[in-house]
Amino acid sequence: MLVSWPVAGEDEPKKSFELPTYSGEKPSIHAPDKPQTPGPIPDARDLYDRALLCWPAQTYMRAEVFVEGRARTETGTYLDSSGTVTTTGKTSAALVARIPLYSAAELDREREREFARRTKIADAVGELVASLADRHRMRRELEITRALERRSQERIRIGVAETSEQVRYLEKVASLESELLKQHGAIQKARLVLVGHCTTHAGDALDRHLVQYIGGR
Questions:
Q1: 174, 115: one domain
Q2: How far is CA 206 from CA 25, 39, 56, 195, in A?
């Protein structure tokens, strides 16, 4: 008499293969009707001025004139012909202007250095403002693409689409996630460039101003 032994898992229902989404989650197949409210974007000129003001050295783009007050008292003793000793005193006050002496060539070099610094700050401000604005657009695109990826997963489950359809959306989601990571790096680079132009105390104040716009990824 032959006895057949059940094979492990033979009676268990077979589970069809399901390709997970890129995030591993199952979001709604319907993207939000409206995008999230975009975060505030800093005013470029205001941010540029803030970064310039926290520079530790005085600017060479304008003349440097220092005005100071001075007071002086003079006393003297005189002996006249009659043998009388007379003591006199005189007090004077004056305003003195001091102008640093620089050669024309040295001033040109300093202005060139400051112009280069101003250009770097302007580039960092432009990159930061553009990246923050583009980040909102890319997040909205990611919302829609993730919904399409989830929809294709359901279409495959009920047998009206092939796995390749979901794979295409999965690749698009992965690409958008990668672009967001690169964008995050560009935002942080611009942030550090701006803070790097400041002294420690002024840099901390500027960084707190930037964080309210940058937020999280």
A1: yes
A2: 38, 18, 14, 7
